[in-house]
Amino acid sequence: MSRMMIKGLGVLITVFLSVSTAWSQAVTTMQRTNVPGNANSDLDYGRAFRFNVKSDGVKGTPFLFEEPKSATIALSGGKVYDDIPFNIYPENEEVFIQTGGDDSDPLILKNWEWLKTIEEQPQLFRLEYLEGKQRIVEVLYEKDRDKYVALHSKHLVKPTTLKDGYTGPQYDVFKTNIRYFKINGLKSTEIKTNNSGIKELAQGQFSQVRAFMKAEKLKPEQTADMKRILEFLFD
Fold first, then answer.
1. Signal peptide position in this chain (predicted)?
2. Is the whole-model pTM more than 0.90?
C-alpha cells in the first residue's frame, strides 16, 4: 500500500504519534501479504502469476480509492485529528492510515468514530449496522432517525474472451460497486437507482425530482449526485 500514498505527506504525524497515547492505541501495524494488487504483497499479482489465462495481469486496487485521501478522523475517546492519509479496504471493513512516509508500513485504524475527507466535496464515513454486521458506509443524509448511506465494495472483473493473435492486452480489473440504503435503527431498506427506485424514494415528489435531476444532469449512481437528490427531497 505504501506506493499508493500521497507524496510529501510522510512526516506529517511523526511527532504527533509520539505524544498521543490514545492515537497509538488506536492503530495496529499490518503487512497485507494476501491482498491482490497490493504493492506490499509477497507476490505481485499484476506480473508474477496469471491466475486467469485470459488475462495479462491486474489493474486497479482492492482499496476504495485509487490514491489515498486525507481526512479528519475522530476516535471513540473523543480526540479528533486532521489531515491523516487513509484508505479503506471494503472486503474486511478496515481503515488503513500511513503516518511515517512512503516506505512505512500501513496501520489499521481501530476505535474510530467517523472520518471526513478533506476536499471540495467531502465524504463522511462511519460504521453502521447493516446486513447483519458492522459495515463502513458513506453517510449521505440524516434526518431524525433516518440515515441514507452508500455501501461501497470492490470486485474483480475478469476478461471472458480467450486471447489470440489479434487480441491486445486484457486485464482483470477491480471495479467499484455502490448500493444505497435507508437505515432506521436495526432496520435497513435498499434504495435502487433505477426509475422505479427513485420513484419509491421520492413518493409524491417524483415529477419534481426527475425534473431536478434532468436540469442538473445528476446520476444517482454517483454518491455526490445522490446526496444532492436526497437534499432536494428532504431539506
1. 1-24
2. no
Exposure b/e, 109-144, CB count within 10 A at least 16 = b = beebebbbbeeeeebbbbebebeeeebbbbbbbeee
Domain residue limits, the chain: 2-191, 192-235
Cell numbers of 166, please? Answer: 489479434
Cα–Cα distances in Å, from 68 out to 7, 183, 223? 10, 28, 18
Angle between the 206-216 and 195-202 helix axes, to the nearest 10 degrees?
120
- Identify the pLDDT of residue 197: 95
CB 19 within 8 A of CB 105: no
What is the structure's pLDDT at 169? 80
| Mean of all residue pLDDT scores within the chain | 81
Mean pLDDT of 146-157: 95
Spatial separation of the C-alpha atoms in residues 209 and 229, rounded to whole Å: 7
Q: Taking 90 as the threshold, does the pLDDT of residue 2 lie above it?
A: no
